[in-house]
Amino acid sequence: MKIGLETESCHLLFQNGLMNIFDFIRYTWELGLDGVEINIIPDHNLHPELGCLDGDDDVYLRRVRQAIEYYGLYCEIDTRLTEPTLLQRALRIAHKLNADVIRTYINKGEYSQKSMSQAVEDIKSVVPLLKKYRIKLGIENHEYETSDEIIDIIKEIDSNWVGAHCDIGNAMMAWENPVEAVRKLAPYTFSTHFKDHIICLHDDTPVVTGVPVGEGSIDTEECFRILVEDSMVTRINIETCFPYSSTFDRARGTGGVSDFSAAFKIKPPPFPTEIIKPLDYYYPHQISDEALKLLINAQRNCVSQSAQALKILRSKYCGE
C-alpha cells in the first residue's frame, strides 16, 4: 500500500506563501511518502481558478510532472463539482501530470437533491474522456452526503470509470458512523482521504474538528484495515484537515447517528479558545498573528505525525 499526501494537509503553508507545489512535492518525498494529491480548487492567496497550481499551460504542467517523476511519486488530482467544462479541464490537467485518478464532489454549501440528479448526467457526459485518458473519477462523500447516497449515484452512472472517493472523516458531518461509511464505500473506492476527527464546541455549537491521525475519535486503524481487506485501492492519501472545523451539514440522524457518544463524543478543542475558536481555524490570519503562527506550527507537526501513523498501520496490515 502506497501512502500519499494531499495539498490540503498544508493549506496554511500554501495560503501564506510558505509553500508552492514544487516545495510540496519535495516535502512529500522528504516525509518518505509515495505520492501527491494536488488540489486545484481556488482559495485564499492561491490561483483564482487552479488552487495549488500556478497555471495549466503545457510548459508549467511539464515542470510539475517532471518534479513528481524526479522524486518517484504518483499523482492524483482533487477538483470539485460536476459541471462538464470543469471536469474536462481537470481531466486535461490530470492527463498532463500523468495522474490516473481524479476526485470530485457534488454539493457545495448545502445538500441539494437537484445537484445530485444533475451530477449523474454531468458525469455520464465525461465518461468518454475518462476512457480516452484512462483516468478514473472518484466521487467523494464530501460532508453533505451519506455513503448510501454516493453509492446510489455511482450505480446510476453505471461506469467502470466512476467510483467512490472514500473520505474516512466526512461522514461525521452527515451524522454517519465513519467506520460504517468506510465499510460501505470500500468496494466502490478508487481513492481516499485519510484523517481523524473529534467533536468539540464552538461557543455552544457542536462542530466536527480535524486532529492529527491517532489523536481523534475515529477508529482509524479499523478504517485502514477495511480499506486493505475490502477495497482494491493501492494508495492511501493523507488529508489531515487540521486546523479545520465544520458544522454538521445534515439534519441530526440523517446518517444513522443522533447522539453525542462514541466517535461523536464531545471533547475539548485542540487550541485555547481565548486565542482562536474552532470555526476560525481555517483562516487564522483573520484572527491574529499569534493564532496564525500557532496553527502553522501545529499543521507542520500534524503532517509529520500523521505520516508516521500511516506508516505504522501499513507495516501492520500490509507488511514492510
Short description:
With 320 residues, this protein is an alpha/beta fold. It has helices at residues 11-15, 21-30, 58-70, 84-97, 113-133, 147-157, 178-185, 220-230, 289-318, and strands at residues 2-6, 35-39, 74-78, 101-104, 136-140, 162-167, 189-193, 196-202, 205-211, 235-238, 245-246.
What does this structure look like?
- This protein is an alpha/beta fold and 320 residues long.
- It has a single domain, classed as Divalent-metal-dependent TIM barrel enzymes (TIM Barrel).
- Helices cover 38% and strands 17% of the residues.
- The protein has helices at 11-15, 21-30, 58-70, 84-97, 113-133, 147-157, 178-185, 220-230, 289-318; strands at residues 2-6, 35-39, 74-78, 101-104, 136-140, 162-167, 189-193, 196-202, 205-211, 235-238, 245-246.
- An 8-stranded parallel sheet has the order 7-6-5-4-3-2-1-10. Strands 8-9-11 form a 3-stranded antiparallel sheet, with no helix packed on it.
- α6 (147-157) runs parallel beside α7 (178-185), α7 packs parallel to α8 and α8 crosses α9 (289-318).
- It is globular and about 50 Å long.
- The N and C termini lie close together (10 Å).
- 49% of the residues are buried.
